[in-house]
């Protein structure tokens, strides 16, 4: 009997604590890209404030739908909404965290950071115009590299993704041919190549297939020890894929004159800027029905900006630069009603 | 004893009527419970069809019947250009190749197990088949991606391409370059996945053949092959086809394993070593990040798969009917 009583008591305690925890929980949904760092922040926030963050990484498109339907407190998307769309839905939007996107290759004898590519060449490879590794355009960028005369196998994402959105956005900015034939989007009509599921699918494919090229988030390339390339940026400088280069793209971008922070960090100016940087944006209702939840979410994001930079870097994310964070905090007090 | 029967006799007429009506009530209740269960299947199926149609209406209005023969799939174009030809082709081709491999192998295993196999080997083989059916599809996908794909691309495909090089039609079907991810690789994985369906159902129906029939055939001097061909298979034809249909249904709709190794490309190529996609793989990949017309197009693809499966199964039923007529039943 005693044993039974303990069980019942324990059950009751568990039930009451979970209900109180639910009451103060913040709910969010969307981008899969932000999920690893968001859960790390949520963990730290729970320890500090006792409030949990319940985030479902169901994809940016689905996240936008959930916040539109008001089933969550915040949404997260890799492709920002345009200012008129934000106005229509009554959303506030700001960038939360960034990550670099790098081309990865598997070519015999080529080590990480050795090969140099630029936007136009990359676009020609992904459109099927450049088919061999020893093509004149690639040779011109890499006069000293020994490149095989083998066919290039192109690997792209099969699932709709923010990574694809930013990558195709970059190709559209650097190649008129790509812009008119393929365009940008979370899923596009790929002229050549095979599709793999997720960053891990592309990484796995590149690792297995000789003479292949693909694109992944920097964290995947680094963790899987893939051979990533250097890039020629908008200023014409050759840059290496480093955190400084990713952050330079964000610092040099002109956030103040972008309404609703609608800014895609590809092909940004600056000598040190890496040309393909992905940003995840948070969406919230300006005039939410549940104001308490809304305020709690803002507290969480403030905490993430102030104390989460280190944990973001540990996971190979790039925190927003200080000048941008200041701007965002101003937006909160001006836009979101409490 | 006598006393008891007296009691029963005395209470007879009254109890009998009551008991009968109780039975009747039980019968009616039972009848309605089973009937409602049966009807619920129709309701669920109808509900699925209706919601698919509602979701697909915008895409149907936009593309009409051209959806069926448009090969382009460009969701990011403005407005999106969507066509189902690529995924439909991939679905049919992979299922066809899978059945081409799985039916003879599956029947072969079943015949060996029931007619030829020594007693001590039966259990291990039977268990192996059940285990094959129990492996989750994601495991098949990963195995196909890491093990089968590289093997096929490095060994099997170059060999086939070399053999058929220069032969008119076959040369185009088995054309290079070899690829880790291709229609053929997906079809081979599908064949392995549907094998247990065909085998275990065939084994079960083969066991229903009355021993006296087989013994009589052996008695007049038939060989094992003749007994299987002329007694076992004709006797169990309906059951075998049922198993094949279940397998085909799975092959048409399998998603996870296929997405891993088919290459997810909407282009149609004459070569089975080229990447392709299937309807279910396309939906699974793109649905989460889709909206508007793109999403509606994916739902229309789903509806199409539904219709396609229906026609394939109906066609098989028709074939079965004709076979039975031919057999004079």
Please characterize this protein's 3D structure.
The complex is a heterodimer of chains A (338) and B (329). By secondary structure, chain A is an alpha/beta fold. In chain A, 45% of the residues lie in helices and 19% in strands. Chain A has helices at residues 2-24, 35-49, 60-68, 83-89, 119-127, 136-141, 162-174, 176-181, 198-208, 218-223, 243-252, 291-307, 309-314, 322-335, and strands at residues 26-30, 53-56, 74-77, 91-106, 116-117, 153-157, 194-196, 212-217, 227-228, 230-232, 238-239, 277-285, 318-319. In chain A, helix 5 packs across helix 7 (162-174). Chain A is elongated. The model of chain A is unreliable at 11-23 (pLDDT under 50). Chain B is an all-alpha fold. Chain B is built from twelve helices and no strands. Chain B has helices spanning 2-63, 66-69, 85-116, 119-134, 137-164, 168-173, 183-206, 211-219, 224-253, 256-261, 279-286, 292-326. The radius of gyration of chain B is 27 Å and the shape is globular. The mean pLDDT of chain B is 89. The interface between A and B is medium-sized, with 33 and 32 residues. Chain A: InterPro entries: ABC_phos-bd_PstS, PBP_domain, Phosphate-bind_PstS. Chain A: The complex is composed of two ATP-binding proteins (PstB), two transmembrane proteins (PstC and PstA) and a solute-binding protein (PstS). Chain A: This is Phosphate-binding protein PstS.
């Amino acid at each position: 009997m005693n044993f039974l009583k303990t069980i019942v008591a324990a059950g009751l305690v568990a039930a009451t604590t979970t209900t109180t925890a639910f009451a103060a929980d913040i709910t969010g949904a969307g981008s899969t890209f932000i999920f690893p760092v968001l859960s790390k922040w949520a963990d730290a926030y729970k320890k500090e404030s006792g409030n949990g963050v319940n985030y479902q990484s169901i994809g940016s498109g689905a996240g936008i739908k959930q916040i539109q339907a008001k089933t969550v407190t915040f949404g997260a998307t890799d492709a920002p909404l345009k200012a008129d769309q934000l106005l229509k839905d009554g959303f506030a939007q700001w960038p939360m965290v960034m990550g670099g996107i790098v081309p990865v290759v598997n070519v015999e004898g080529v080590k990480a950071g050795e090969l140099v590519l630029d936007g136009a060449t990359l676009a020609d490879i992904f459109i099927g115009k450049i088919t061999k590794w020893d093509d004149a355009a690639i040779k011109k960028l890499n006069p000293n590299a020994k490149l095989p005369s083998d066919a290039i196998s192109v690997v792209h994402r099969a699932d709709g993704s923010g990574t694809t959105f930013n990558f195709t956005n970059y190709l559209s900015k650097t190649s008129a041919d790509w812009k008119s034939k393929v365009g940008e989007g979370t899923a596009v009509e790929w002229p050549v190549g095979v599709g793999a599921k997720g960053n891990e699918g592309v990484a796995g494919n590149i690792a297995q297939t000789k003479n292949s090229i693909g694109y992944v988030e920097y964290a995947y390339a680094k963790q899987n020890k893939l051979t990533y390339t250097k890039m020629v940026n908008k200023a014409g400088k050759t840059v290496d894929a480093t955190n400084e280069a990713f952050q330079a793209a964000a610092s040099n971008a002109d956030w103040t004159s972008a309404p609703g922070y609608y800014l895609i960090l590809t092909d940004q100016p600056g000598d040190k800027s890496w040309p393909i940087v992905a940003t995840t944006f948070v969406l919230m209702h300006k005039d939410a029905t549940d104001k308490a939840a809304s305020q709690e979410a803002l507290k969480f994001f403030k905490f993430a900006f102030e104390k989460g930079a280190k944990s973001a870097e540990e996971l190979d994310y790039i925190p927003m630069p200080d000048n941008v964070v200041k701007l965002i905090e101003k937006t909160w007090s001006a836009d979101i009603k409490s | 004893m006598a006393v008891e029967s007296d009691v029963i006799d005395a209470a007879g007429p009254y109890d009998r009527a009551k008991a009968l009506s109780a039975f009747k009530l039980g019968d009616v209740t039972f009848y309605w419970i089973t009937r409602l269960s049966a009807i619920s299947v129709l309701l669920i199926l109808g509900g699925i069809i209706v919601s698919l149609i509602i979701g697909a209406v915008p895409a149907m209005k936009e593309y009409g019947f051209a959806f069926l023969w448009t090969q382009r799939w460009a969701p990011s174009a403005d407005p999106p250009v969507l066509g189902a030809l690529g995924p439909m082709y991939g679905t049919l081709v992979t299922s066809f190749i899978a059945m081409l491999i799985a039916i003879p192998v599956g029947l072969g295993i079943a015949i060996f197990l029931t007619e030829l196999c020594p007693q001590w080997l039966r259990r291990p083989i039977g268990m192996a088949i059940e285990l094959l059916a129990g492996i989750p599809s994601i495991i098949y996908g990963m195995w196909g991606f890491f093990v089968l794909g590289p093997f096929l691309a490095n060994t099997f495909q170059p060999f086939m391409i070399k053999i058929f090089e220069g032969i008119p039609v076959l040369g185009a079907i088995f054309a290079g370059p070899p690829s880790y991810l291709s229609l053929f690789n997906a079809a081979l994985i599908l064949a392995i996945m549907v094998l247990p369906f065909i085998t275990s159902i065939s084994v079960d129906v083969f066991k229903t053949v009355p021993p006296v029939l087989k013994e009589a055939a052996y008695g007049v001097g038939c060989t094992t092959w003749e007994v299987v061909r002329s007694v076992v298979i004709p006797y169990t034809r309906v059951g075998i086809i049922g198993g094949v249909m279940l397998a085909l249904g799975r092959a048409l709709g399998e998603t996870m394993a296929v997405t891993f190794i088919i290459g997810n490309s909407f282009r149609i190529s004459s070569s089975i070593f080229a990447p392709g996609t299937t309807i279910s793989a396309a939906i699974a990949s793109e649905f989460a990040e889709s909206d508007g017309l793109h999403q509606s197009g994916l739902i229309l693809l789903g509806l199409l798969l539904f219709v396609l499966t229906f026609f394939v199964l109906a066609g098989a039923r028709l074939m079965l009917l004709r076979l039975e007529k031919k057999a004079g039943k």
